[in-house]
Amino acid sequence: MGQKVDPRGFRLGISRGWEAKWFATKDYGRFLQEDLKLRKVIAQRCRDSGVSSVEVERLGDEIYLTIYAVHPGILIGRGGQNIERLKKELQGISSGEVKLTIREVERPELEAYPVAQNIAERIENRIPFRRVMKQAAFRTLEAGARGIKIKCSGRIGGREIARSETLHQGQMPLHKLSADISYGFVEARTMMGRIGVKTWIYRGDISEEVMKESVTTETG
Question: Terminus of the chain with fewer CB atoms < 10 Å: N or C?
Fold first, then answer.
């Protein structure tokens, strides 16, 4: 089962916390759609910043958004122009007051989404996909990862028939709930069509004490 589901949802509440921290009964559907719109706008407007993840927390009429970015300086902009423009746009599609917090990703080589995004951008620039995959895997393992798996699907290499190419180096215990696995998916838009890039990064095991503490913090 661990081989076929999203590694994040598989470990949710066990060794991984929630990225949306709010509870609702009557307005659940509206809040969910609003969260999806906020995440979509952030992903589109902040692509050059290397956004790794976005956390949404609701307290009353206030919406706290925490954006983890590889390049926070690009996201903020000179004099805070970019972040103010983004905040104004997010405020226009939300029902509460938006408050933004920007945090830097200290080790982007160990975050699956920035790695997948980098691979997709290089494929869009017509760099051979096998070379891109090998270089990304090498940098990730050099940064301290215990394993990485990269899968590209589509008309890769300009082929007429879509196919999949997978690179697997090191360990990847997807069935192990205590395994700290980062997962990311990005689409590369090429002249031959879209190419899906999936990345799994195994960063080691999480101790039982840390697992209990993280879940208690999220639920408490």
Answer: C
